[in-house]
TrEMBL record:
Transmembrane segments: 6-24
Organism: Flavobacterium granuli
Keywords assigned by UniProt, alphabetized: Membrane, Transmembrane, Transmembrane helix
Protein name: Hydrolase
Length: 166
C-alpha cells in the first residue's frame, strides 16, 4: 500500500512537472512572438511617422539644400548659416506685431478693435515665408517674400493674403 501510494505520488509529481515545463516553455515562446510582433508594428509606425514628417518638411529651408546654398555666398556671418537665419527672419517679422495698427505684413487692414498679429511663421526657402495671423476673431494666412539687405536688415513683401470666413 505504501509502495503504491509512493508510486502514485511519483507519477503525479512527474505529470505535474511535465505540465509545468510545457506551460512555461509555451508561455516563453508566446511572449517572444508577442514581443516580435509588437516590435515590428512599432518599427513600421515609426517609419510611417518619419516618412510623413519628411513629407511635411519638404518645403522648408531646413531641408532645402539649394536654398541653403544661396546663403553660402553671403558676406555676413549672421545670414550665412541658415540655422541662425530662420530665427533671425522669424524674429524680425514677429517684432512687427508691436505696431499699434497691427503687423503690416498680414495684408489686412484692422477690422475691429483688435489688430492683426502674426502667430506662426515657416520659412519655406531662401525667398518665401508662410505665416498664420489673427485678431482673435478672424484668422488668415499670408505668403510673403523676404529679402536680406546689405545692412543685414530684412525687408518683407506681401505676395498674397487670405482671410478665412467667420
Amino acid at each position: 500500500m505504501k509502495k503504491s501510494l509512493l508510486l502514485y505520488a511519483l507519477i503525479l509529481s512527474l505529470v505535474f512537472n511535465i505540465y509545468t515545463y510545457m506551460y512555461l516553455s509555451k508561455e516563453v515562446t508566446f511572449e517572444q512572438e508577442k514581443y516580435k510582433t509588437t516590435t515590428t508594428k512599432l518599427k513600421d509606425s515609426l517609419q510611417s511617422v518619419s516618412n510623413k514628417l519628411s513629407d511635411v518638411n519638404y518645403f522648408s529651408l531646413d531641408k532645402n539644400e539649394n536654398a541653403q546654398n544661396y546663403f553660402e555666398l553671403a558676406q555676413s556671418e549672421k545670414i550665412r548659416n541658415y540655422a541662425t537665419l530662420i530665427p533671425y527672419v522669424t524674429g524680425q517679422l514677429l517684432d512687427l506685431n508691436a505696431n499699434p495698427k497691427g503687423n503690416p505684413y498680414t495684408g489686412q487692414e484692422q477690422l475691429g478693435a483688435t489688430k492683426f498679429s502674426i502667430n506662426k511663421v515657416k520659412v519655406l526657402n531662401h525667398r518665401w515665408i508662410i505665416a498664420d495671423y489673427t485678431d482673435g476673431e478672424y484668422w488668415g494666412e499670408v505668403l510673403l517674400k523676404y529679402f536680406i539687405n546689405e545692412d543685414e536688415s530684412v525687408s518683407f513683401e506681401v505676395n498674397q493674403s487670405f482671410l478665412y470666413q467667420k
